[in-house]
Amino acid sequence: MPDFLEKFFPVVYRKKLDPTINSNYCQYDNQGLQLFTSSLYLAGLISTFFASYTTRVLGRKPSMLIAGIFFIAGVVLNSAAQDLAMLIIGRILLGCGVGFANQAVPLFLSEIAPTRIRGGLNILFQLNVTIGILFANLVNYGTAKIKGGWGWRLSLGLAGIPAVLLTAGAIFVKETPNSLIERGRHEEGKAVLRKIRGTDNIEPEFLELVEASRIAQEVKHPFRNLMKRRNRPQLVIASAMQIFQQCTGINAIMFYAPVLFQTVGFGDDASLYSAVIIGAVNLVSTFVSIYAVDKIGRRMLLLEAGVQMFLSQVTIAIILGFKVKDHSENLSHGLSIFVVILVCTFVSSFAWSWGPLGWLVPSEIFPLETRSAGQSVTVCFNFLFTFIIAQAFLSMLCHFKYGIFLFFSGWVFVMSLFVLFLLPETKNIPIEEITERVWTKHWYWKRFMDDDNVYIEETVNGNGSNKI
């Protein structure tokens, strides 16, 4: 918004107005503006280590409550900001909220969900992210029209509504059975398990959780345990999926959609309107994942989306390469619409694949003894590479120009090969059985499971040998 840029980023504001600096690709290339965006993710990266401890020792519920408090504090500072320092401190508090929420919520959903719908229920997390993105785009579109220089304050202040909802929800929600049992509160865990399953026949699942908790209690240093050979497959896959998720280029497009559409010839209002369209496509496409993830599986969605994202980005690069030069030239109306369609095609494929599955798969592959630490590493890698992309994108757009889409499409090709050869299917497999039913049978990862005492401990009783 012009008023926002004039107050906090006057260099960018003057560059936009200067007719002698009219580069299609470089008018927003400013480290301060990028730092405003990316500071949230740097804060999230640091706070996730504290969130891991809180989630493990105090539970999933307190972590969500802390996240809500951070969000409220960040909103207050951002909407009342008088200078850039105040604005960035508010963003940092929001980042701490994101760090705690992203640590606790996927674990919470995976642990309360019945196995048969675990994928769909977990994707509700990503669905609500897409709803938030759509609402944010609608709010920005509406408040950009407010005269008098306070529209941006309303835009940032309205984030207080979901912040309050999250805080209130965290007060009333039940703690997960896994977390209660892990902290020795077995009867409470059994009561919650009985309630969320809607039946009294929960003894087999309860005993399985108790045994998993017993094994987890023997692990005194979860992060150190995470580095052991037997946990290598989970660690590599969780980390790689976060890196790949960001290297699709999705956050570059979602963060800077108005900038991107101005680059190809849309005016200020039209570019914000196009960003709203992208948010709507993102939201609707997430429902595809909810419906399909537990039916056709994680791998098929990721592979199909890889082809769709690759073709969309290469086509965009070709159009921009031939039709948009560095100065003053814009696409025709028809080609501009076609670019929007291609971007929507890219966003839709991401929304039913790498978006939700980038969180779902890591949340269900770690055993209980390293689950909180594993989720922390997952969130850490996500924030680290989100920060890198957010901090670099406008400069990359300036220097790479249309080649930015070729850069990201190359990553999409690499990550599709990774899924094809190294990502096992976890559809309809209980979390506590994944080691035995997935890792020990995978053509490559099984070699990490053949050490002594890695995944099987044999105890002999009167009936013979039991596997635990």
TrEMBL record:
This is Major facilitator superfamily (MFS) profile domain-containing protein. The keyword Transmembrane helix applies. Belongs to the major facilitator superfamily. Sugar transporter (TC 2.A.1.1) family. CDD domains: MFS_STP (cd17361). Coiled coil: none annotated. Keywords: Membrane, Sugar transport, Symport, Transmembrane, Transmembrane helix, Transport. One of its GO terms (molecular function) is symporter activity. The lineage of its organism: Eukaryota, Viridiplantae, Streptophyta, Embryophyta, Tracheophyta. The chain crosses the membrane at residues 32-51, 63-81, 87-109, 121-139, 151-173, 235-259, 271-293, 300-322, 334-355, 376-396, 402-423. PROSITE patterns: MFS, SUGAR_TRANSPORT_1. Residues 1-427 form the Major facilitator superfamily (MFS) profile domain. It is found in: Membrane. GO terms for cellular component: membrane. It is a multi-pass membrane protein.
